[in-house]
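Project outcomes to date are best conveyed with an example. Our students and postdoctoral researchers have been running inverse folding experiments weekly, and each run begins with a structure described purely in tokens. The record below, which covers 414 residues, was selected by the lab manager from last quarter's runs and is presented without edits.
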């Protein structure tokens, strides 16, 4: 991989997280990504960054995590040391920027773990991280970004070729146009693209939608929205008003629905690797009634759905509904990436688990109980499942009862 292209990518990511002069940066990634973290650090310091820290949580050390799940005394699996998570509170208070690279060195490494033992650890970790995750990801108290970097085994899985440096080089050829690194000024190209997404979100907001309905092969799902639901796309803003882009790549327009109003069936159109469980769900579906998942199955990975649905009461309800146009470069690449950051930007999707208070007017700063009373789902998990395809139609019903065509055969009409 050309080092100049890696530096261009690093600068795209630093632009996306909007690193300020004098600001500290946290890079969360697996050890395999340390060389790229070094490039990020160099470029961050050139921009006037105060301090750069590399960190990997328990799941980002797969060998240590696997050893724990397989050999720890069962009673210790729910231990989550305060010293591991409390530093996030300090970083948030000090207004650090947070950049996470979600790309495992080996996507199948944890697939053989005992699901019940793994679930105990996942629940405990999620519970310990919950207040900090809410402050970062849900309430946008700081600028944050999720990005991708290919590894040899990840590239092999995506391309169906043997693992090795050649696979990574081939995958970069796929990634370059998706990441807009082939543009004269990639950072400016992302800024323009995100403004376009923001404009489309505003057009959806102008419709005053009460609900959206997805119809496609195996799917007929109606999702109710809150009067306060706000469609978002492209840039976000921190609680202090600083602009940032939370995902690179990003192609979605999304909102948080009324978790009490989901009816019908959603069939998954792409496989989903659930990182916290380390296993894939393929050809799955979920049936909703009165806002809750009441039945589900999958050709492969039903046990993953079983584990996910048991995490907490909110894991069975929707926290997000998102629309992605069929012109998305992720979709037109023709690839399944086995990575939610990419795959969620290939197709319209819904997410089981926590909603986004930032997508609901008046929800910022509310307690979990107040959010639930308002209709915003509360959960320690958030897992996206793609349901869109070129055969998907999406209609909306406005608050005054009009039906509006939003997407036809996977393409936007608004």
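After processing, the design step wrote out the following sequence:
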């Amino acid at each position: 991989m050309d080092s100049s292209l890696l530096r261009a990518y690093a600068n795209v990511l630093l632009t996306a997280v909007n690193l300020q002069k004098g600001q500290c940066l946290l890079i969360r990634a697996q050890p395999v990504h340390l060389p790229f973290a070094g490039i990020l650090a160099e470029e961050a310091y050139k921009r006037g960054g105060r301090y750069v820290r590399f960190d990997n949580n328990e799941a980002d050390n797969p060998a240590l995590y696997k050893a724990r799940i397989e050999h720890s005394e069962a009673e210790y699996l729910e231990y989550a040391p305060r010293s591991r998570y409390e530093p996030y509170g300090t970083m948030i208070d000090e207004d650090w920027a947070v950049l996470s690279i979600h790309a495992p060195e080996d996507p199948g490494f944890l697939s053989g773990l005992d699901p019940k033992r793994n679930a105990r650890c996942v629940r405990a970790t999620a519970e310990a991280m919950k207040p900090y995750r809410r402050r970062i990801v849900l309430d946008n108290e700081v600028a944050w970004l999720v990005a991708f970097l290919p590894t040899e085994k990840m590239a092999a899985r995506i391309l169906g070729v043997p693992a090795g440096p050649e696979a990574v080089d081939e995958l970069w050829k796929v990634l370059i146009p998706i990441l807009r690194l082939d543009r004269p000024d990639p950072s400016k190209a992302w800024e323009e693209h995100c403004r376009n997404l923001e404009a489309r979100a505003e057009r959806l907001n102008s419709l005053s939608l009460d609900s959206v309905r997805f119809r496609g092969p195996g799917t007929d799902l109606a999702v109710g929205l809150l009067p306060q639901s706000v469609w978002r796309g492209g840039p976000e803003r921190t609680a202090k008003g600083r602009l940032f882009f939370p995902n690179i790549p990003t192609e979605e327009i999304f909102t948080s629905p009324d978790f009490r109003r989901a009816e019908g069936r959603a069939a998954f159109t792409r496989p989903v690797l659930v990182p916290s469980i380390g296993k894939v769900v393929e050809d799955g579906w979920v049936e909703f009634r009165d806002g809750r998942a009441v039945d589900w199955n999958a050709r492969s990975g039903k046990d993953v759905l079983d584990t996910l649905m048991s995490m907490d009461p909110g894991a069975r309800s929707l926290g997000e509904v998102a629309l992605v146009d069929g012109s998305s470069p992720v979709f037109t690449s023709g690839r399944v990436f086995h990575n939610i950051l990419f795959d969620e930007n290939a197709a319209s999707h819904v997410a089981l688990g926590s909603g986004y208070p930032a997508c609901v007017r008046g929800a910022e700063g509310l307690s979990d109980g107040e959010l639930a009373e308002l209709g915003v789902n509360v959960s320690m998990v958030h897992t996206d499942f793609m349901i869109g395809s070129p055969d998907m139609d999406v209609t909306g019903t406005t608050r005054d009862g009009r039906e509006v065509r939003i997407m036809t055969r996977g393409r936007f009409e608004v």
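The mean pLDDT is 94. The longest strand covers residues 279-289. The training component of this project remains on track.
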